[in-house]
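Hi P.,

Sorry for the delay on this. The queue was packed all week, but I finally got your sequence through. Input first:
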Amino acid sequence: MKIEPGDTVNFVGADKGHNTTSIKGMLPDGAAPFVGKNGEDMSVKFDQAGV
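Then the structure:
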């Protein structure tokens, strides 16, 4: 998925045993890492373009 600065990505917590989290090395340089709670929906607004 390609995103532009200011885009928001909605992650749907479809499984109570899994969470949403960024993976080191897969975010653009300078992007803030994120982590959500197990089974919960999470929205992340990205400030930098990336893939």
